[in-house]
Design goal:
The protein has 2 domains: about 180 residues, Rossmann fold, CATH 3.40.50; about 290 residues, pyruvate-formate lyase- activating enzyme. Helix content is about 40%, strand content about 15%. The protein contains 22 helices and 16 strands. The strands form 3 sheets. The chain has a 7-stranded mixed beta sheet, sandwiched between helices. Strands 8-9-12-13-14-15-16 form a 7-stranded mixed beta sheet. Strands 10-11 form a two-stranded antiparallel sheet. Helix 2 links the parallel strand 1 and strand 2. The radius of gyration is 24 Å and the shape is globular. About 45% of the residues are buried.
Length: about 550
Amino acid sequence: MNYYKLCYYLTAKNSNRINLSMSRKARILFVYPNERQMSTIPPAIALLSELLKRKGHITGIFDTTFYEFEDDIAIGEPDKNREKTLTVRPVADKDDDDLHFEKITTSPDVDLRKKIVEFSPDLLAVSCTETTFLRGLKLITKTRDMGVRNIFGGVFPTFAPKIVMNFDAVDMLCVGEGENAIVDLADRLARGEDYSDVTNLWVRKKNGTIKKNSITKPVDINQMPITTDIGLFGEKRFYRPMGGKIRRLLPVETHRGCPYTCAFCNSPSQNRLYTGRGNFFRKKSMDLVKQEIENHIKTWKVEYIYFWADTFLAWSPKEFDEFCEMYQDIKLPFWCQTRTETISRYKFKKLKDVGLDRITFGMEHGNEKFRREVVKRNYKNKDAIELMKIPNELDITYSVNNIIGFPGETRELAFDTIEINRNFQADSVSASTLIPFAGTEIRQLAESQGLIKPDTICTVGNSSEEGILNMPQWNKKDVAKLSKTFAMYVKFPKSRWPEIKKAEDDSELHAKLSAEYIDTFWNEEDDDLREAAKGFDVNQ
């Protein structure tokens, strides 16, 4: 950063009117406060970067995925934690997998400051969930003396804007989708114009007041660029574990939003947020999906596709057939997630024929009454059990996701979830501890019962951690213990249950049973996986 630019930043720190006439281009540095090795490349940032670049602006990224954190904000390594709870097949740390297992040991705080000096941004754009917000806030706070404006976006700023703006280090936030807002903001920064009235934004003004602007209608996802700025993240982020193997994969968005009303999800709130402005739930045309995949193959040599959709099979019969016809010519192995209610023999046979490698089903809870009244999922257990036979008969590998620790839930009710999972022949099962995210019906229920304070920020982000809710009938520490042993209760014979119960408190016994689980149910040839399992310490 040159002297003139530095002086400019320091003097413009508290101004809503910025003069960038010298370049007529805005420099936007995305800050992605990701926990170590968690998730794939976020399609949203790649899309926003592409839109900005097409308007002539300059973008960069500071991604914390490969950093190790040792503070009270860190949630650990999600991938490794999922392995410890037998949620996913372990992946051994091998030399040839270093693209995924890379560790950056320098300070992210220091490195971000260096990046700011190097990139000379006009705006720091932080994309966060509730579990990563405090990480992003800490990073931004450490850079305030550098005088660079910031904006926070994502689901947490959308549904907890008052909480976010209570932090003085936050200059702006975006409520709802950011495609139009970020481009409008960058354009105004480049032209030196006032940006306090940009739609979807909450802007902290010089006098400390906050300007709350209205939101626009949802964007037309079929008018978005076919190619997104995937390269912004670098190829090392293309590699992710899938089924115990490191895959070179990229996400592809097929749907945005969800038509269902699960109480633990914020998609219903997204739908309500846009009431009167258009439908938040949208589907991308098959032609655009195909073009995006073909570009991933040609440009990035992708070998595996992850379809980015809350419910992949939320299509009409005609749309489903169109997908299969489109993907027939591609046939790359792919992974997706859906609901048990969407299963049919016809659909799954066609999906397998065109490349389906793995699929994840959201079961969530095994007690019909509790599932209907609290979780807001209404289906019969007997129907789910019958439908789940279909992927087994078709030899389709699948996993089942569940949640425990709901408001009012007991250990006995959680064992109803274990019991229904024992009817399935899933490759893996999981039981995440409930996180009552802002903007969900479950969060409202928890607050009404006095189980969580309204201003609580949920920082727990994986199944190996304690839950958030302090329930008198079920201690959160005990919820976490059951989460760690859930797969064992599902897969091992009931005669082993007393032993598993002991393993809830005995880390050495848990490690022994984990190794046996891997050897029995995943039957890997690789001894490294067994050795990795023997080293599991669930108390870490």
